[in-house]
Every structure is written in structure tokens, then in C-alpha cells.
Amino acid sequence: MIEAHQLTKRYGDKTAVDRLDFTVQPGTVTGFLGPNGAGKSTTMRMIVGLDAPTSGSVSVNGRRYAEHSAPLQEVGTLLEAKSIHPGRSAFDHLMAQAYTHGIPRRRVEEVIELTGLQSVAKRRAGAFSLGMGQRLGIAAALLGDPQTVMLDEPVNGLDPEGVLWIRNLLTGLAADGRTVFVSSHLMTEMALVADHLIIVGRGRLLADTTVQDLVRQAGGDTVKVATSDPARLREILAKPGIEITGRSGSEELLVTGVSPRSIGLSAAEHGIPLFELTAMTVSLEEAFMELTRDAVEYHATTGIQTPEKAA
Questions:
Q1: pLDDT band at residue 2, thresholds of 50, 70 and 90?
Q2: pLDDT, tens digit, for every residue of 135-178?
Q3: Which pLDDT belongs to residue 83?
């Protein structure tokens, strides 16, 4: 479990992380999302003691990272995959870490096999591709068989097979009861693996919620219904927790809070013909963009200037 209480980090007059409160629970994959510059990497660095909080606190399994006698066996971390000596082989890199924590050689061999590095284990890590470097970083994170795993952009550089592998790895770790905390800019991947989301913008907490609830709040459970008798259908469907909107004189209604199946059954029971019954889907990416639109630091222009216009 990871617990942050009023976690704050300032660099001079810039506040990178601003009074964050959140808990990352075991047994789930928690996605850590936010635009560039939102404070995600700084937060992760504070979790493992690489940066000291200006104020507030953060603990892993009830203690500050520095208080654990064998931190690799408490939390495994991938923050920067290329933070390795380029002249060392993958095997030697992992063995060096294993020696410091009394981890046996057989565990090094296990994580090399788990991450698919058998064929390159004796090669110098400096010659690794981005994808192989990611695999080595994940192997190091898993070396101590930790109860908490924290990965920053773990699918960077991975091919489709590697993306599927990391997806199954994350869900498997969570199913095993471990705490899994993952940052990513790939909303499609987060939608597939994350149970819970912590979303930050400009250093502040924007949401601490489930994927389903975030999408629902963005209109993801709205159903468009078209019928020749919208007034009667509105009366039938009107119940606590159900929101119905529609323009006067229009055959279309937008219904939130009830499934298309329930709407169809209610209409059939009362003999109301339906011309359309469509679930209006909102993706996690769309919900995320809506939530963070005022917290984006860097905005690109959408047009391309020609030389004449630039002049």
C-alpha cells in the first residue's frame, strides 16, 4: 500500500506537487495519470526517497521508503529504464542489485526468464534497444519479489507482444494481491488494465476514482432514444437517479442512468415503438481530456504555417 498525506514539493517558487492525498490499495492496478508537467514523476521519486518532500509525507506499507531494511523486497520501481551502467551485462546489473539485498542467484535467473531477456542476458546493457531496456528495468523492479510495484511508463518502446506481456503482468500482480501503481500516457492501455485512477494536474489531485465512474461522469452511460411518443416514454422512464433530456418537438431523448436493455424492455412493455436505441460511448481518453483541459501546461498549435505565412 502507498499512502500520501498532504504531499508537497516545491522547487524555488514553482510548486511541482501540491498537497496530494491519496491511497494506492493492494489487489488492484492503479493508474497514475496527468498531462506533462503534472507532477507524476516527482511524486514517484518522493515515494522512493529520491526527492524529499517540502512538506507532507508518503509511506510504503506503513513506513517511509528509507526506513525499510530491505527496500527492494518492499517496493520494486521502474522510473528510468536507462539508469544502468552501459558496460554491464543485464545479468551482472541484476546480480549487483541482488548482492546488496541478499537475493539469491536463482531469483536473478527467474526475472530474466520472466521478462524474456534470456537471449541477451550476457550482452552489455548499453547496446540495448529501448524495449530491451524497459524489460531490464522491469526485471530489476521485480527482483525482490516485492508486494508493491511502481512503474513509470512501462510500455515505452515495447512491441505489440511486449505490450500484451506487460498488460498480463500487471493484472497478474494485482490478482496476486500486490499493490500496482503505474503511470502512462496511453489511455487505451489504462482502460484495459487499471481498476482505479489517480489523476493529477499542475501538481494537484483532480480525481481519485474508478475508470467506470470517470467515464460515467463524462457522459459514458448516456443512451440516445428515438421514438414517435417521447413524452410518454419520458413518463415511463422517469425514476430517481435517471436523467432525461430532449428538445421540444424532437423525437430524440438522451437518457442517463439506465441501460439500453432496460429502456427497450420498458418501451416494449408499454407498446412504444423505438426508432433508435444507441449507447453513446465515451472513451477514457475523452474523459481524461475533459477533466484535465484546464491543467495542461503545454499547448501545441493545430495548424502548419507555410513559409509565406510565417514571413
A1: very high
A2: 999 999 999 999 999 999 998 888 899 999 999 999 999 999 99
A3: 76
CA distance 70 to 265: 59
- Report the run of H or E that residue 243 belongs to, with start and end: strand 243-245
123 by Cβ neighbours in 10 Å (0-12 / 13-18 / 19+) ranks as middle
The answer, yes or no, to whether residue 114 has pLDDT greater than 80, is: yes
Cβ–Cβ < 8 Å for 199, 288: yes
Catalogue the E-assigned strands of 61-124: 75-78
Sheet of 252-256: strand order equals: 243-245, 252-256, 222-227, 274-280
Which value, to the nearest 10 degrees, does the dihedral of the CA atoms of residues 297, 300, 302, 303 take?
140
Beta strands 179-183; 29-33: pairing state: parallel
> H-helix or E-strand containing 277?
strand 274-280
Cβ–Cβ under 8 Å, residues 174 and 180: yes
Give the whole-angstrom CA distance, residue 14 versus residue 244. 45
Separation between Cα atoms, residue 41 and residue 192, nearest integer Å: 22
Span 246-251, mean pLDDT? 86
pLDDT at residue 305, rounded to an integer: 53
The answer for residues whose C-beta is within 8 angstroms of residue 80's C-beta and 6 or more apart is 137, 152
In the predicted model, what is the mean pLDDT of residues 43-71? 95
33 with 183: CB under 8 angstroms? yes
Contact 27, 193 (CB under 8 A): no
Give the span between the Cα atoms of 207 and 213, in whole angstroms: 10
CB 198, CB 22: distance < 8 Å: yes
Buried b (16+ CB within 10 A) or exposed e, 65-79: beebeebbbbbbbbb
Residue 250 pLDDT > 70: yes
Torsion angles phi and psi, residue 128, rounded to 5: -70, 150
Sign of CA dihedral 73, 75, 78, 83: negative
